[in-house]
Design a protein that fits this description.
- The structure holds two protein chains of two kinds.
- By secondary structure, chain A is of the alpha+beta class.
- Chain A has one domain: Peroxisomal Thiolase, Chain A, domain 1, CATH 3.40.47.10.
- Helices cover about 25% and strands about 15% of the residues of chain A.
- In chain A, strands 1, 2, 3, 4, 5, 6, 7, 8, 9 and 10 form a ten-stranded mixed β-sheet that branches.
- In chain A, β9 and β10 form a beta hairpin.
- In chain A, α3 packs across α6 and α7 packs across α11.
- The longest helix of chain A has 14 residues.
- The radius of gyration of chain A is 19 Å and the shape is globular.
- In chain B, α3 packs parallel to α5 and α8 crosses α9.
- Chain B has a single domain, classed as Thiolase/Chalcone synthase (Peroxisomal Thiolase, Chain A, domain 1, 3-Layer(aba) Sandwich), CATH 3.40.47.
- By secondary structure, chain B is of the alpha/beta class.
- The chains are: A alpha+beta, B alpha/beta.
- At the A-B interface, α4, α5, α6, β4 and α7 of A face α2, α4, β6, α6 and α7 of B.
- Chain A: InterPro entries: Ketoacyl_synth_N, Thiolase-like.
- Chain A: This is Beta-ketoacyl synthase, N-terminal domain.
- Chain A: GO terms for molecular function: acyltransferase activity.
- Chain A: It holds the Pfam family ketoacyl-synt.
Amino acid sequence: MTTVHAVPSPATAGFRPVAAVLSVALNVPGLDLPTLLAGAGRLAPDAALGTRGADPDPAGGPTVPTDPGAGPGGAGAPGDAADGPGWPAERAAELLGRKGLLAKEPATRFALCAVHRALGLPPKAPRRTGPADPRTAVVVSSNLGNVATVGDLAGRLRDGGPREVGPLEAPNASSNVIAGAIAIWFRFGGPNLTVCSGATAGLDAIWLAGLLLRVGRADRVVVVGVEPDDPQARALHAARRGATPGRPLRAGAACLLLGPPDPSERPLPPRDPADVAGREPALPDPTETPERPLALLGPVRDGTSFGGAPVDEARLGADHYGAAGVVHTALAVRLTAGTPAVAVRCGDPVDGVRETTVRAVPR
Amino acid sequence: MAATITASAVRTCFGDGPATWDALRRGECGVALLRRVDPRRVGVAHGYPIADDRPFGPGRWLADCVTEALAAAGVDPRRRRVVSLVGTGLRESAEVERAALAGAVDFPAERLHFGPAVAGAAPGVGPVVTLANACSAGGHALALAQDLVETGEADAVLVGGADGSSASMLAMIGRVAARPTGRVRPFDTDRTGVLLGDGAVVLVVEADRPGAGLARLLGTGLSCDAGHETAPDRHGILRAVHDAYRRADRRPEQVDLVLAHGTGTALNDETEAGVLAEVFAGCEPGPLVTALKGAVGHTSGGSALLSVAVAIEALRTGLVPPVVGLSRPTPEAAGLRLVRDRAVAAAPRVAQVDAFGFGGLNAVTLLETT
């Protein structure tokens, strides 16, 4: 369960940002964020988000939003790809290109689509080549990303023995397959983490991303929250003691591109000559980084209680589970277009609660 | 900057930490027939199992280590800010397989991560974050733990690593092996591949207190190859090595001992031996090199921390256990000072620990005597 709500202005006093949000994107099939926000009575989001995303499908967008909270009229606006309806897994090749996608599970596809959108890349953009960028880290939060593959492999082994499985399936048997695939796809060579701590995983991932920035392990961090909704994932999600009845698992991904809160105050640590000798500069492509952050993130706190009326819960109508902290931070970034600060909380009664504050960038 | 490791607790096929150290010192091999899976179904017959076949073994072994390590460190999570980072390759994936075969989930799914196990053994602990970072997960957790105490975000970090084996991963290592593997033989010409070992390790990391604790944690370098999902990459590993030396403010000639990743696979051992030869080129005589997987198997998420725990014992006792299963080194490894046949007395002061994992994840740790 994740909640997002506006924080009164006094709560922003003493705000100490730990990261700047440089870009945001969602890839949640069936969720149309502009419609959702408009329907929630919020100020209509400004153009800060999604302006660098390309229209994924000139023919009218990959899906028709089916979110129960979505009102008529705002669905899948062409040109608003970074947070318009998400690409379903089976159509991910239309955004990402087909090469290398065949063996990828749905969760990996959602994640790659979200990163692709956050980077503002056009559909089927040429893949980055050359050496990996050692200063960009990847932190993924997901609990159920590969459980369908693991269960499927177990079934085939029981029925047919080892000849029923192939070595190309090996990456999917490891729980870090999504983060590894993102690093390889986009050539991100910095620290690579997969957080699977249950309902708090999304904000745990943001916490660790802030740590990587603070101690100089990375200049920017690609944070991705993602879950699938296959039968195996749904069964496990429902079998939690901390589950909320009536809130099913929703598939999809969100991506936050984070950087230091004030780059000018954080000189780059000295690089080892071996990192750069004979290679192209590893600094982010200036076209990939907006000049001004979209929002600032405060420290992630360990919540002490669980309760309160979740403002957007009914409207969202579903649970993003391990992705929730990232999905709703992305949503909160949109809300800062009309509100100075937005609180984000995720967790459940068993896994605990994490909170953070997303603040608009002072003008 | 540095941190202090104030306690260590271990579970392997040999038993607890003292039992494991005794077996390693004597050069024993813990290989045995697999206990919890049918070899005909996965195509692998051997492993390094813990004699505990109940469900959720990794979480139970981890919880035992948490209890032991907290007591040894004298840390009370109710009185200090203690968080926990747990590295794992497979989490409790064996239970996901069991549920899939049964068509029903008969356990609370929160138990797929290690929050409940750690919190149950460490009342008052803050966030428990499980990191699924493949075979270098423990090294990644250790890196972040040092960051947390150095920045003052935590007073102490319970750094864990735990893994058992899943049928799906066993089948994969069987499929990529050149021929059936009866034991792990790191850096040996006749190596055939890796086998999985059950295990859990917990280290307690606290702020730097020179002269105190078990060992000084100097630094851990991290990198991702971003190249291939399962094959190691020299450039990516070297980035982690250089990052470790820069963070630790040490030079290769200061290192006396290396605990290699040494999986006994064709690709890892060739790549790692080449990297070690390159890093220590010009160092005379160069560090002693040992590796644990011939004795305890590949303990996956726990393997980096197990190597750290054994490095601590080597630094404290001056004794370096041999590479079990090694009789004829490969050409790439021939120039390394591999410890063979029996433990040697060497009085090392600085040790390097390698850990590499699927996804191209590299973690290289440096530690030294207190």
